[in-house]
């Protein structure tokens, strides 16, 4: 699915592709300005240029369509239903009206959690439309690894599980121990910094990003980290 992102001519990408997508998801989810991106993301000028270029090419719509197909297949397997995949042409745009109204209301409720979408902050309507598509992609990519794997949903009001005793003498060892204790959870950099009593959160985020590039921890979303998956 991601092959079309790199199959272009011209100068190779300078910044990591995953980091660029995570940065767009971070702006969409938390509603910040482009120039307010944390330091563990690429420069905001590069991220904004990537957003404009890929949105004009219709990339988020195509990604949302493919992710929607995967989620429907998974839902059919869980419920024991026969699922029929209908492939539309590349120039297909818009939505298919479903007979159940609550599906539309639920979708709007999910999208309203993305602060960039609570108001029309964009100067152009096509930019706001692109933000909606990117938020949809971000929402479905978070559901795909969690629901088919049987991970427990995050509790909004229940008490969190107790934290393990961090006996490692170095900071990286403590982070690895913490992530391994709750492998289903996605940790924010600010949460890890609060547990470890780290004051300089921006510097710590850069350190987390470096550890993810080195293969110690897994960056699973915009400024979200988890343990590395174990091989079967």
Distance between the termini: 24 Å
Shape: globular
Largest sheet: 3 strands, antiparallel
Helix segment count? 9
Q: How helix-rich are the residues, as a percent range?
A: 40-55%
Query: What is the typical, i.e. mean, pLDDT?
Result: 77
Radius of gyration computed on alpha carbons:
19 Å
Task: Tell me what the structure shows.
The chain has helices at about 5, 15-30, 45-55, 60-80, 100-110, 125-145, 170-180, 190-195, 200-215; strands at about 185-190, 220, 225. It is mostly helical and about 230 residues long. Strands 1-3-2 form a three-stranded antiparallel β-sheet. A hairpin with a 2-residue loop joins strand 2 (about 220) and strand 3. The longest helix has 22 residues, at about 125-145.
Which descriptors would you attach to this protein?
single chain; 232 residues; mainly alpha; 3-stranded antiparallel sheet; 9 helices; 3 strands; 4% strand; globular
Task: Describe the protein's topology.
Elements lengths: L2 H4 L10 H14 L13 H13 L2 H21 L21 H11 L13 H22 L24 H11 L5 E2 H7 L5 H13 L4 E4 L2 E3 L6
Antiparallel strand pairs: 1-3, 2-3
What would you say about this model in short?
The protein is mainly α and 232 residues long. Helices cover 50% and strands 4% of the residues.
């Amino acid at each position: 699915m991601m092959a079309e992102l790199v199959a272009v001519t011209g100068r190779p990408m300078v910044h990591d592709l995953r980091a660029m997508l995570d940065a767009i998801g971070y702006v969409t989810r938390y509603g910040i300005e482009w120039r307010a991106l944390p330091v563990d993301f690429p420069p905001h000028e590069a991220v904004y240029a990537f957003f404009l270029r890929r949105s004009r090419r219709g990339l988020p719509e195509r990604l949302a369509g493919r992710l929607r197909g995967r989620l429907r297949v998974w839902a059919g397997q869980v419920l024991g239903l026969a699922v029929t995949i209908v492939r539309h042409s590349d120039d297909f745009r818009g939505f298919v009206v479903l007979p159940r109204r609550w599906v539309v209301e639920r979708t709007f409720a999910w999208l309203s959690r993305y602060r960039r979408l609570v108001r029309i902050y964009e100067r152009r309507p096509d930019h706001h439309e692109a933000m909606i598509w990117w938020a949809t992609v971000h929402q479905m990519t978070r559901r795909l690894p969690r629901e088919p794997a049987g991970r427990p949903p995050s509790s909004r009001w229940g008490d969190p599980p107790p934290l393990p005793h961090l006996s490692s003498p170095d900071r990286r060892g403590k982070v690895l121990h913490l992530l391994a204790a709750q492998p289903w959870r996605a940790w924010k950099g600010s949460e890890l910094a609060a547990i470890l009593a780290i004051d300089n959160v921006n510097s710590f985020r850069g350190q987390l990003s470096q550890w993810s590039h080195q293969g110690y921890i897994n960056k699973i979303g915009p400024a979200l980290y988890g343990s590395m998956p174990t091989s079967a």
